[in-house]
């Protein structure tokens, strides 16, 4: 019995000794080092980076596992699947270029087996309207009845790259003056009216113009004896009308300037001079009033002894200058119907102007006949009468 007890105690001692040795041996071994085995773009919700045109985004990369011993050694290369949507530089800075979606790829330069991707979604940048401007001349404008003012042509919307630059036009009293979608104001009766120009993009930006519709008196400049005329092509002599450009200032409605139509035909005048104006040439005359004049209407008078439509120019365009070199357009031909049966054609200008030189181009005429004739020309100021 004593022998058995000894063996048992010895076995127990041996087992404990072996366990202690194994425990000490295990405790002395180092834990195996963990290395990077996965990459991800940092803080990207649902795998998508959402940007607006022009935005930039600095890409950051997260390595896994979090305690990888070689994480600090990793460097990356960045690429885009579509440079029209976004570009990315060597440091990972993404720049949103255009609306759309493209893939951002991050490639490990340390381990070609590791890479990650995410989607970059670029949306359109919205630029709201910040201001609307209109010609100062129309901010407080006096005008006659039954006139059309192309207000819309002077309207500017800012910024110039506004996402929705459309505006609407509103009249405070359409019975006095109505306005269409193009900003053309038509005056209908005497009174005052406010035209509002308003943005449609929700920015609530607006500006206004006050129109005063009044009866008007036209006062001519009657002294024209020192005015001179320069013509684009030789003028034609005529036994009845004369043809000399200075006839426009002689107060004789039976005499006229005669200019040959740009129809390519040869016209032989009363002095047997042969005049040909090629098709496509612009026929015009320039009046030198010798000094700058301020005016807001001009008047063309047709011959009173011959109302043949062939002789009457149908449309003209007018320009002003103070140096006879640089001319500013005042009105285009489509806005000046001068081929009327009445003798005097009075054309209101959009606003008062001051020029020394007045240029008139003869834009349209009858296909019949060879010459265009204007008997008298004058300019002047409109006087608006008080409403009764």
Task: Describe the protein in words.
This protein is mainly beta. It has 3 domains: 38-123, Immunoglobulin-like (Sandwich), CATH 2.60.40; 131-215, Sandwich (Immunoglobulin-like); 219-383, Jelly Rolls. Helices cover 7% and strands 45% of the residues. The chain contains 1 helix and 30 strands. The chain has one helix at residues 2-28, and strands at residues 38-41, 48-52, 56-58, 61-64, 76-80, 86-88, 93-96, 100-108, 115-123, 131-133, 140-143, 148-150, 156-158, 167-171, 177-179, 184-187, 191-199, 206-213, 216-220, 228-231, 242-243, 256-260, 266-268, 274-276, 283-301, 315-321, 328-331, 344-364, 371-374, 376-384. The strands form 9 sheets. Strands 19, 20, 25, 26, 27, 28 and 30 form a 7-stranded antiparallel beta sheet that branches. The longest helix is centred in the N-terminal third of the chain and has 27 residues, at 2-28. The protein is elongated.
CATH fold-level topology of the largest domain: Jelly Rolls
pLDDT averaged residue by residue: 91
Number of helices: 1
Distance between the termini: 146 Å
Overall tally of domains: 3
- Detail the poorly predicted runs: 1-10, 12-16, 18-27
Radius of gyration: 43 Å
Helical content stands at under 10%
The CATH architecture of the largest domain can be given as: Sandwich
> What fraction strand?
35-45%
* CATH domain class of the largest domain: Mainly Beta
C-alpha geometry: elongated
Helix- and strand-based class?
mainly beta
Largest sheet, if any? Answer: 7 strands, antiparallel
Query: What name goes with the CATH superfamily of the largest domain?
Result: Galactose-binding domain-like
The number of distinct β-strands equals 30
């Amino acid at each position: 019995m004593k022998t058995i007890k000894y063996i048992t105690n010895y076995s127990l001692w041996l087992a404990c000794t072996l366990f202690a040795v194994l425990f000490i041996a295990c405790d002395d071994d180092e834990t195996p080092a963990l290395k990077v085995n996965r990459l991800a773009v940092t803080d990207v919700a649902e795998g998508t980076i959402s940007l607006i045109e022009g935005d930039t985004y600095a890409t950051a990369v997260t390595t896994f596992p979090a305690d990888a011993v070689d994480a600090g050694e990793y460097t990356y290369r960045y690429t885009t699947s579509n440079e029209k949507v976004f570009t990315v530089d060597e440091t990972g800075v993404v720049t949103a270029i255009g609306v759309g979606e493209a893939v951002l790829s991050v490639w490990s330069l340390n381990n070609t087996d590791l890479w990650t991707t995410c989607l970059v979604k670029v949306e359109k940048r919205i630029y709201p309207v910040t201001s609307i401007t209109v010609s100062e001349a129309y901010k407080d404008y006096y005008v006659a009845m039954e006139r059309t003012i192309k207000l819309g042509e002077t309207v500017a919307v800012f910024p110039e790259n506004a996402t929705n630059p459309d505006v609407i036009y509103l009249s405070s009293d359409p019975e006095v003056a109505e306005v269409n979608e193009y900003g053309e104001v038509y005056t209908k009766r005497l009174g005052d009216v406010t035209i509002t120009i308003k943005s449609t993009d929700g920015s609530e930006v607006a500006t206004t113009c006050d129109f005063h519709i009044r009866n008007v008196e036209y006062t001519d400049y009657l002294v024209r004896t020192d005015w001179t005329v320069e013509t684009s092509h030789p003028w034609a002599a005529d036994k009845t009308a004369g043809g000399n450009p200075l006839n426009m200032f002689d107060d004789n409605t039976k005499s006229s300037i005669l200019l040959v139509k740009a129809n390519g035909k040869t016209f032989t005048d009363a002095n047997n001079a042969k005049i040909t104006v090629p098709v496509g040439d612009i026929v015009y005359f320039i009046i030198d009033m010798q000094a700058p004049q301020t005016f807001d209407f001009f008047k063309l008078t047709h011959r009173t002894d011959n109302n043949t439509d062939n002789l009457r120019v149908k449309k003209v365009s007018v320009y002003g200058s103070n140096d006879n070199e640089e001319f500013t357009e005042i009105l285009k031909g489509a806005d000046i119907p001068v081929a009327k049966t009445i003798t005097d054609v009075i054309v209101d200008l959009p606003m008062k102007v001051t020029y020394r030189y007045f240029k008139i181009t003869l834009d349209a005429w009858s296909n019949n006949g060879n010459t265009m004739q204007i008997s008298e020309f004058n300019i002047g100021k409109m006087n608006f009468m008080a409403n009764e």
